[in-house]
């Protein structure tokens, strides 16, 4: 919204108030143009803008690797859900409202699995699931249109280019570890392994994933033990 | 004038319709959708809460408390705001409680004792190598509401309207809080820069 009625003497104050949203890029086109026009002619406001930009840059810098480790948090939350009577039922039906308290009264005092034990049990269940998947799809003659090796005819799998990553795991990486890594990035194996042990993974909700999501996921995967190679690429090439 | 800072990847990757669909699935008890929503929001929540709490274990606890409320109350989301605003609003209130428990009352410098910084003084602050350390110290001395509006605007790159939705207050209240937060932050930065800073940088505008 253009501030056509702002007096020159009030301009500094108005622009100063808009600077945080000019700095973070969320002003609309008209307001952004107004601020830029003022900044071009006001040294004090330009200096103020430079300071805000520097402060914003410092604040945006990641502080901790927690940002890149959702799996441990999810494991703990899943364990909490498993210990709650609300876990088995749908959280809500029409007309039914859950308790406002995070921990329903009936769970208080009940013995709960420690997060460590719950995490171990979940990891074991995941390992069993992964091994079953691998046996079904690699050992048998199962032929699915949704999962083919790169050397099989028709192995081009359609996936949005922005949402695929090529990945090579270290030889000692277990099936459970692979499963854990895939869950962390929300990925699913859609092709591989090739003769060079290259897998192709697609990010969940691929239709809405962007190249930024794939790049971020690849960056994170590369930093993990057990991953030798990870690059965001397009669909696997036809044989 | 050169273009502004771009929003970080978090904002660029957001897809409000997809987030709303996931939330609707969660309301129907879809655990897989809930897990996807958790992974989708974890980075955003972690980035915001780490800055606010400064302790990974507390940030993680608030993330999980927030997402547990999302699981329990997903059906209460009626779509009046974005799904992200609703979820961040839950985290915001939780963070506010955490900050309020540990906030210390630090008296402001009287306005007349601290002249408005002129362009040279502002530019001088921006160039100081110690600015990151001063900022770390200064942020914690802001009130909880001031800390949170700064973090939501600069760490998460949210618009004025989005912050108003999350904080459940009018847009003008957010503007006012931000105005006072930035003013107080600059006072604290100058204080940390030392008593001779203003003298060395020049007079009042």
Q: What does this protein structure show overall?
A:
The complex is a heterodimer of chains A (239) and B (205). By secondary structure, chain A is of the alpha+beta class. Chain A is 45% helix and 10% strand. Chain A is built from 7 helices and 4 strands; from the N terminus they run αααααβαββαβ. Chain A has helices at residues 8-23, 29-41, 43-60, 70-82, 115-139, 175-185, 211-222, and strands at residues 164-169, 187-191, 199-203, 227-233. A 4-stranded antiparallel sheet of chain A has the order 2-3-1-4. In chain A, a hairpin with a 7-residue loop joins strand 2 (187-191) and strand 3 (199-203). Chain A is elongated and about 70 Å long. The model of chain A is unreliable at 1-7, 86-110, 141-159 and 235-239 (pLDDT under 50). Chain B is mainly alpha-helical and 205 residues long. Chain B has 11 helices and no strands. Chain B has helices spanning 9-12, 16-27, 31-53, 56-73, 83-102, 119-127, 131-139, 144-155, 160-167, 171-193, 197-201. In chain B, helix 4 packs across helix 5 (83-102) and helix 5 (83-102) packs across helix 9 (160-167). The radius of gyration of chain B is 19 Å and the shape is elongated. Residues 1-12 and 109-115 of chain B have low confidence and may be disordered. At the A-B interface, helix 1, helix 2, helix 3, helix 4 and helix 6 of A face helix 2, helix 3, helix 4, helix 6 and helix 7 of B.
